[in-house]
Structures are given as structure tokens and as C-alpha cells.
Amino acid sequence: MVSMDALIHTLLKIAIYLLIGFICKKAKWITDEAERSLTNLILYIFMSGTVIYSFATELNLRNLSNYFGILLIAAGVEIFSLLLASFIYRPFAKEKQKALRYGTVVSNGGMIGLPIIQSLFGTAGALITNIYLVPQRIFIYTEAERIFNPDYKSSLKGFMKSLFINPITFSMLIGLLPSLFNFEYPAFILGVCDSLGKCTAPVSLIIVGSILANTTLAQKIDWSVLAGCAVRLLLIPITVLCATRIIGFDSILSIIVALLSGMPMASTTALMSQKYHQDASYASRCVFTSTVLSLFTIPIILFL
Fold first, then answer.
1. Coil, strand, or helix at residue 107?
2. Stretch (H or E) spanning 97
3. How far apart are CA 174 and CA 91, in angstroms?
4. What sign does the CA torsion over 68, 73, 74, 75 have?
5. Cβ–Cβ under 8 Å, residues 298 and 7
6. Which of 257, 241, 303 is nearest to 1 (CA)?
7. Residues contacting residue 230 through CB under 8 Å, at least 6 positions apart
8. Contact 107, 263 (CB under 8 A)
9. Which residue of 7, 22, 28, 131 pairs with 209 in a disulfide if CB–CB is 3.0 to 4.6 A?
10. Which residues face 107 on adjacent strands?
11. 178-213 per-position pLDDT tens digit
């Protein structure tokens, strides 16, 4: 099946990137300081390149207005995930709750979801995926500030600051400028953004693999991690699939939204933990475990 081929191919690439990071850390080619520096490079440069390129080439104002319903669905899924994560992990230690909550709200829909959806539904599916990921890209920073930053003060002002003053929001605005003012960026600028964006996934996963090298086998086995995976990979997508079918959404759109809502925890779960000096080792285990288990859960969601 095309879907399984795409899934296995993507997961094998992820495994190789993780292994490279693991080996580099064990060989001391990547130091703790290098991890922090590369994390900043990913969060501020590479991810910005991805967003600028997507908005400048595909996610223009016309597409966003035509697919406004998908934006609303995606926002609804994010809000549901946010509310669910706020209480379901309370039995676990506070430090573990941080990674679990963030990983529940932010998934790896870009790297894993996009190739799978594209293999199943072609370019139309890829466009829907990119539009669906818009709200989640905003949450990458707003939730990181709220969950991981010990200096964050919960207030409307603090939320608005984290929402608008971050690299992703700035990148979205830069990417939308051609649609707003009817011009096109030179090809070489788009080429630079595209090249930078393509560095995001491999370098992020290499860093996750590097952080995993600091953990023992006993640490890798954790019931709280499995609980987070069950929520991220099964509870949320099954709930979304049932809700969209009850409401009466198109069957293809329902399955695309359900698949995207059931992707594993984003690699930024570990990167943000690292950035704010939280338990990056535990966050990396969450990313690794949910990625492996998604090999089994994505086909389940696909054929429900």
C-alpha cells in the first residue's frame, strides 16, 4: 500500500537521523553546548525558512480564504488538545507534565504527516496539510513559552506577546507580503528559504538522538511516556474522526484531519525543553517512543 510505504520510508529516515545524533554524542562530536547552539539555529533560522517559503509559494491569502474551514477545524483540534492536556496528565510529576502537555498540543505533522497525506491524496492533500498546520505552527512558540519558560507570567499581555512576538509569526507575515502587496520574491530568496527549511527536520532529529544518548535503558521505559503516546496517537485522532463524521464533514477531509491530529509528538518538544533548561532527556524519550508507535497507530486511524 502506498500509505504504508510512505510511512515506513519516513520512519526509516527518522531512525537514521536519530542514530546519527546518538553516535555523534557518544563519540563526543556533539557537545552539550553544541546542542544548545543548534537548537537555537533550528528554532530561529531553519523553521523560519520553512514558514516563509510555505506562505510565499502555497499559503497565499486566496488559498487561506478558500480553505478557511480547514483553519477553523485545525484551530478547534488545537484548542481541544490544549484543554485535554491541561488536566489529563495531573497524576504525573510536574516536570514530566511539561513535555507531555506540549507534545499533546504540537505534533510532527510536517515531517511525517505531509509525505503520508501527499502519497494518499496528491497535491490537494499536501495543500490541506499545510493549511491545517498553520494554527499548530503558532502554538509551537506560544505553548513553549507558557509550559517550559519558568519566567512566563500568565496574563493576557503575556499571551499576546508570545503569540505575536516570535519567529513563526514574523515569518508568516513575511511570507504573506507578496499576497498583500501583489509582488513576488526573487527566486534566489525563495531558494534560500527552501534550503534552510529542509534543514529543520534532519538537524532537529539529530539533536533529539544526541539528547537520547544521555539516557539509560531503564529511563527509556516509562508509563507516563506511554500514556502521553496513547493520548497523542489514539485518543485525539479517534475523537476528531468521530466528531467530524457526526458533524457531516466530507469523508476524505475527515480522514486527513484525523490522520494529522494523530501524528507523533513534535521534535520541538525536546528542542524547547533544551532551550528552557527543562528535562530534555525525558522529552526526547516522548518524541522517540511516539514516533516508533505511530508506525502501528497511523494505519489503525487510516482504516477506521
1. strand
2. helix 94-105
3. 42
4. positive
5. yes
6. 303
7. none
8. yes
9. 22
10. 265
11. 888 888 999 999 999 999 988 988 898 899 889 888
Question: Rounded to 5 degrees, what are φ and ψ at 265?
Answer: -60, 140
Q: Which residues contact 301 (CB under 8 A, 6 or more apart)?
A: 234, 237, 238, 241, 255, 258, 259, 262
- Report residue 284 as a C-alpha cell: 526526547
Q: Return the bridge partners of 265, or none.
A: 107
Return the pLDDT at 10: 77
Asked if 263 contacts 132 with a C-beta cutoff of 8 angstroms, the reply is no
220 is written with which cell numbers?
527509556
Taking CA atoms, 149 is separated from 252, 275, 276, in Å, by 39, 9, 6
DSSP 228-277: HHHIIIIIHHHHHHHHHHHHT--HHHHHHHHHHHTPPBPTHHHHHHHHTT
Domains of the chain with bracketed CATH: 2-299 (1.20.1530.20)
Written as nine digits, the cell of 267 is: 521534535
Contact 168, 78 (CB under 8 A): no
Q: Based on C-alpha coordinates, what's the Rg of the chain? A: 18
Q: What is the mean pLDDT of the chain?
A: 86
Bridge partner residues of 300 (DSSP): none
Does residue 1 have a pLDDT over 60? no
Residues 101 and 89 sit within 8 Å (Cβ to Cβ): yes
Reduced DSSP (H G I as helix, E B as strand, rest coil) percent helix, strand, coil of the chain, to 5:
80, 0, 15
CB atoms within 10 A of CB 151: 7
State pLDDT tens for residues 164-178: 788 888 998 998 898
DSSP secondary structure code for residue 112 in this structure:
I
pTM for this predicted structure: 0.85
Strand extents, DSSP E, the chain: none
